[in-house]
Design brief:
alpha+beta, two-stranded antiparallel ribbon, 8 strands, 2 domains, Chorismate lyase, 6-stranded antiparallel β-sheet, about 270 residues, Arc Repressor Mutant, subunit A
Length: about 270
Protein backbone atom coordinates (compact mmCIF):
# COMPACT_ATOMS: atom_id res chain seq x y z
CA UNK A 1 0.00 0.00 0.00
CA UNK A 2 1.48 3.32 -1.03
CA UNK A 3 1.45 6.02 1.60
CA UNK A 4 2.83 9.53 1.88
CA UNK A 5 6.25 9.22 3.51
CA UNK A 6 6.87 12.83 4.46
CA UNK A 7 6.34 13.31 8.20
CA UNK A 8 4.33 16.33 9.28
CA UNK A 9 6.13 19.17 11.02
CA UNK A 10 3.33 20.39 13.27
CA UNK A 11 2.60 20.79 16.95
CA UNK A 12 2.15 17.46 18.71
CA UNK A 13 4.16 14.30 18.19
CA UNK A 14 7.86 14.96 17.54
CA UNK A 15 9.28 13.87 14.17
CA UNK A 16 11.52 11.19 15.66
CA UNK A 17 8.54 9.75 17.51
CA UNK A 18 6.47 9.75 14.31
CA UNK A 19 9.25 7.86 12.52
CA UNK A 20 9.56 5.46 15.43
CA UNK A 21 5.81 4.71 15.26
CA UNK A 22 5.94 4.10 11.49
CA UNK A 23 8.93 1.75 11.69
CA UNK A 24 7.61 -0.05 14.76
CA UNK A 25 4.30 -0.65 13.02
CA UNK A 26 6.08 -2.07 9.97
CA UNK A 27 8.11 -4.40 12.19
CA UNK A 28 5.15 -5.61 14.24
CA UNK A 29 3.04 -6.21 11.10
CA UNK A 30 5.82 -8.22 9.49
CA UNK A 31 6.49 -5.75 6.68
CA UNK A 32 10.07 -5.75 7.96
CA UNK A 33 10.81 -9.36 8.86
CA UNK A 34 12.96 -10.62 11.76
CA UNK A 35 16.64 -10.57 10.85
CA UNK A 36 16.21 -8.14 7.97
CA UNK A 37 18.27 -4.98 7.76
CA UNK A 38 16.57 -1.60 7.93
CA UNK A 39 17.33 1.06 5.30
CA UNK A 40 20.44 3.09 6.00
CA UNK A 41 20.19 6.34 7.95
CA UNK A 42 20.73 8.24 4.71
CA UNK A 43 17.96 6.29 2.97
CA UNK A 44 15.54 6.93 5.81
CA UNK A 45 16.41 10.64 5.74
CA UNK A 46 15.60 10.77 2.03
CA UNK A 47 12.47 8.65 2.32
CA UNK A 48 10.87 10.58 5.19
CA UNK A 49 12.42 13.99 4.51
CA UNK A 50 13.92 14.30 7.99
CA UNK A 51 17.35 15.00 9.45
CA UNK A 52 19.90 12.38 10.42
CA UNK A 53 19.51 13.21 14.12
CA UNK A 54 15.76 12.50 13.80
CA UNK A 55 16.50 9.10 12.26
CA UNK A 56 19.09 8.26 14.92
CA UNK A 57 16.71 9.12 17.75
CA UNK A 58 13.98 6.94 16.19
CA UNK A 59 16.40 4.02 15.78
CA UNK A 60 17.59 4.46 19.37
CA UNK A 61 13.97 4.24 20.57
CA UNK A 62 13.43 1.07 18.50
CA UNK A 63 16.57 -0.43 20.01
CA UNK A 64 15.49 0.52 23.54
CA UNK A 65 12.17 -1.25 22.95
CA UNK A 66 13.99 -4.40 21.86
CA UNK A 67 12.80 -4.29 18.26
CA UNK A 68 16.08 -3.66 16.45
CA UNK A 69 19.75 -4.32 17.03
CA UNK A 70 22.28 -1.78 15.80
CA UNK A 71 25.56 -3.26 14.62
CA UNK A 72 28.58 -1.00 14.25
CA UNK A 73 29.44 -0.51 10.60
CA UNK A 74 26.65 -2.83 9.39
CA UNK A 75 23.42 -0.99 10.14
CA UNK A 76 20.25 -1.71 12.10
CA UNK A 77 18.65 -5.16 11.98
CA UNK A 78 15.17 -6.29 13.05
CA UNK A 79 15.65 -8.62 16.01
CA UNK A 80 15.09 -12.31 15.43
CA UNK A 81 13.01 -12.61 18.60
CA UNK A 82 10.20 -10.05 18.68
CA UNK A 83 7.43 -9.54 21.24
CA UNK A 84 4.37 -11.63 20.43
CA UNK A 85 2.09 -9.54 18.22
CA UNK A 86 -0.98 -11.38 19.56
CA UNK A 87 -0.31 -13.18 22.86
CA UNK A 88 -2.33 -16.25 23.74
CA UNK A 89 -5.43 -15.30 25.69
CA UNK A 90 -7.49 -17.30 28.10
CA UNK A 91 -8.79 -14.72 30.54
CA UNK A 92 -12.13 -13.25 31.46
CA UNK A 93 -12.69 -9.66 32.53
CA UNK A 94 -11.93 -10.21 36.21
CA UNK A 95 -8.80 -12.23 35.42
CA UNK A 96 -7.65 -9.41 33.16
CA UNK A 97 -8.26 -6.86 35.91
CA UNK A 98 -6.36 -9.01 38.40
CA UNK A 99 -3.40 -9.26 36.05
CA UNK A 100 -3.33 -5.50 35.48
CA UNK A 101 -3.39 -4.91 39.24
CA UNK A 102 -0.60 -7.44 39.78
CA UNK A 103 1.65 -6.08 37.01
CA UNK A 104 1.33 -2.38 37.79
CA UNK A 105 1.54 0.08 40.67
CA UNK A 106 -1.35 2.41 41.39
CA UNK A 107 -1.31 6.10 42.24
CA UNK A 108 -4.71 7.40 43.38
CA UNK A 109 -5.04 10.92 42.02
CA UNK A 110 -8.54 11.76 43.20
CA UNK A 111 -11.60 10.34 44.94
CA UNK A 112 -14.68 12.47 45.41
CA UNK A 113 -18.45 12.20 45.65
CA UNK A 114 -20.19 14.51 43.20
CA UNK A 115 -23.02 14.64 40.66
CA UNK A 116 -22.16 12.51 37.64
CA UNK A 117 -21.89 14.28 34.26
CA UNK A 118 -25.17 14.10 32.37
CA UNK A 119 -24.10 11.50 29.80
CA UNK A 120 -22.49 9.22 32.38
CA UNK A 121 -25.43 9.67 34.73
CA UNK A 122 -27.83 8.53 32.01
CA UNK A 123 -25.70 5.44 31.31
CA UNK A 124 -25.63 4.60 35.03
CA UNK A 125 -29.40 5.24 35.18
CA UNK A 126 -29.01 7.97 37.80
CA UNK A 127 -31.52 10.75 38.29
CA UNK A 128 -30.30 14.26 37.34
CA UNK A 129 -28.00 15.54 40.08
CA UNK A 130 -27.75 12.15 41.79
CA UNK A 131 -24.38 11.65 43.44
CA UNK A 132 -21.71 9.18 42.35
CA UNK A 133 -18.22 8.29 43.50
CA UNK A 134 -15.60 9.61 41.09
CA UNK A 135 -12.13 8.02 41.17
CA UNK A 136 -9.09 8.85 39.08
CA UNK A 137 -6.05 6.54 39.14
CA UNK A 138 -2.75 6.19 37.31
CA UNK A 139 -1.25 2.73 36.84
CA UNK A 140 2.46 2.53 36.07
CA UNK A 141 5.27 0.04 35.74
CA UNK A 142 8.27 1.50 37.53
CA UNK A 143 8.62 5.07 36.28
CA UNK A 144 6.59 4.40 33.11
CA UNK A 145 2.90 5.41 33.20
CA UNK A 146 0.67 2.92 31.38
CA UNK A 147 -3.00 3.58 32.13
CA UNK A 148 -5.07 6.50 33.34
CA UNK A 149 -8.37 5.21 34.74
CA UNK A 150 -11.44 7.31 35.48
CA UNK A 151 -14.33 5.57 37.22
CA UNK A 152 -17.86 6.59 38.20
CA UNK A 153 -19.86 4.37 40.58
CA UNK A 154 -23.36 5.08 41.96
CA UNK A 155 -22.97 6.42 45.49
CA UNK A 156 -24.90 3.58 47.15
CA UNK A 157 -22.38 1.08 45.71
CA UNK A 158 -19.24 3.14 46.18
CA UNK A 159 -19.27 4.39 49.76
CA UNK A 160 -16.24 2.20 50.57
CA UNK A 161 -14.22 3.50 47.63
CA UNK A 162 -11.60 5.73 49.26
CA UNK A 163 -7.99 6.68 48.58
CA UNK A 164 -6.82 4.44 51.42
CA UNK A 165 -8.93 1.50 50.25
CA UNK A 166 -7.67 1.70 46.66
CA UNK A 167 -4.07 1.75 47.83
CA UNK A 168 -4.74 -1.65 49.44
CA UNK A 169 -6.82 -3.34 46.77
CA UNK A 170 -8.13 -2.70 43.22
CA UNK A 171 -11.44 -0.91 42.82
CA UNK A 172 -13.16 -3.94 41.29
CA UNK A 173 -12.20 -5.97 44.39
CA UNK A 174 -13.70 -3.32 46.67
CA UNK A 175 -16.96 -3.65 44.74
CA UNK A 176 -16.82 -7.45 44.88
CA UNK A 177 -16.38 -7.21 48.64
CA UNK A 178 -19.53 -5.07 48.71
CA UNK A 179 -21.44 -7.95 47.12
CA UNK A 180 -21.51 -6.66 43.54
CA UNK A 181 -21.54 -9.51 41.03
CA UNK A 182 -20.37 -8.34 37.63
CA UNK A 183 -22.37 -9.34 34.56
CA UNK A 184 -22.25 -8.05 31.02
CA UNK A 185 -19.97 -5.27 29.81
CA UNK A 186 -20.57 -2.79 27.00
CA UNK A 187 -17.27 -1.60 25.60
CA UNK A 188 -16.22 1.19 23.23
CA UNK A 189 -12.74 1.83 21.82
CA UNK A 190 -11.81 5.19 20.33
CA UNK A 191 -8.73 7.28 19.59
CA UNK A 192 -8.17 10.73 21.09
CA UNK A 193 -5.46 13.37 21.10
CA UNK A 194 -3.70 14.03 24.41
CA UNK A 195 -4.77 17.26 26.08
CA UNK A 196 -2.32 18.88 28.54
CA UNK A 197 -3.61 16.86 31.52
CA UNK A 198 -3.37 13.47 29.82
CA UNK A 199 -0.05 14.42 28.23
CA UNK A 200 1.36 15.26 31.65
CA UNK A 201 0.06 12.12 33.37
CA UNK A 202 1.06 9.70 30.60
CA UNK A 203 4.30 11.56 29.78
CA UNK A 204 3.57 12.10 26.11
CA UNK A 205 3.52 15.25 23.95
CA UNK A 206 0.35 17.31 23.79
CA UNK A 207 -1.79 16.07 20.85
CA UNK A 208 -0.08 12.67 20.86
CA UNK A 209 -2.47 9.86 19.78
CA UNK A 210 -4.03 7.90 22.63
CA UNK A 211 -6.34 4.89 22.87
CA UNK A 212 -9.46 5.33 24.96
CA UNK A 213 -11.37 2.29 26.21
CA UNK A 214 -14.76 2.96 27.80
CA UNK A 215 -16.64 0.24 29.66
CA UNK A 216 -20.12 0.24 31.15
CA UNK A 217 -20.21 -2.65 33.63
CA UNK A 218 -23.48 -4.22 34.74
CA UNK A 219 -24.30 -6.63 37.55
CA UNK A 220 -25.92 -10.02 37.05
CA UNK A 221 -29.35 -8.32 37.23
CA UNK A 222 -28.30 -6.16 34.24
CA UNK A 223 -28.13 -2.98 36.32
CA UNK A 224 -25.26 -0.61 35.44
CA UNK A 225 -22.82 -0.47 38.35
CA UNK A 226 -19.67 1.18 37.00
CA UNK A 227 -18.58 3.51 34.20
CA UNK A 228 -14.87 3.11 33.48
CA UNK A 229 -12.69 5.03 31.04
CA UNK A 230 -9.13 3.82 30.46
CA UNK A 231 -6.74 6.02 28.47
CA UNK A 232 -3.43 4.62 27.25
CA UNK A 233 -0.68 5.11 24.68
CA UNK A 234 -0.52 2.76 21.66
CA UNK A 235 3.24 2.50 22.19
CA UNK A 236 2.92 0.86 25.61
CA UNK A 237 -0.47 -0.85 25.64
CA UNK A 238 -2.72 -2.73 23.21
CA UNK A 239 -6.33 -3.87 23.46
CA UNK A 240 -6.80 -7.60 22.77
CA UNK A 241 -10.07 -9.46 22.25
CA UNK A 242 -10.71 -13.20 22.03
CA UNK A 243 -13.92 -13.85 20.09
CA UNK A 244 -15.57 -17.27 19.99
CA UNK A 245 -16.79 -18.59 16.65
CA UNK A 246 -20.39 -18.57 17.90
CA UNK A 247 -20.09 -14.82 18.47
CA UNK A 248 -18.75 -13.84 15.03
CA UNK A 249 -22.15 -12.63 13.81
CA UNK A 250 -23.18 -10.97 17.05
CA UNK A 251 -22.35 -7.68 18.77
CA UNK A 252 -19.97 -9.65 20.99
CA UNK A 253 -17.55 -9.55 18.06
CA UNK A 254 -17.69 -5.76 18.01
CA UNK A 255 -19.57 -3.24 15.92
CA UNK A 256 -18.49 -0.14 14.01
CA UNK A 257 -20.65 2.79 15.09
CA UNK A 258 -20.28 5.89 12.92
CA UNK A 259 -21.05 9.39 14.12
CA UNK A 260 -24.27 10.18 12.27
CA UNK A 261 -23.10 13.72 11.64
CA UNK A 262 -20.67 12.34 9.09
CA UNK A 263 -23.04 9.97 7.34
CA UNK A 264 -24.68 10.91 4.05
CA UNK A 265 -27.65 9.15 2.51
CA UNK A 266 -26.93 6.83 -0.39
CA UNK A 267 -28.67 7.77 -3.58
Amino acid sequence: MNTENTLKRAEGTALHKQLFIVLRDQIMRGVRTPGSVLPTEEALCDQFKVSRITVRRALADLEAEGLVQRRQGRGSFVREQLPDAIPLMNRGLLDSLRQTAAETDVKVLRVSTEPAPATIGQLLQLTPGEMAVHALRLRSSGETPLLLLETWVPEHLGHRITVAAMKRKPLYQIMLDEGVQFGRVIQEITAVAADPFFADQLQVPVSAPLIRLTRLLHDTEDRPVQHLTVTMTPERTRVLMDIKSDDINTLNAGHLAHDRRFLTKRR
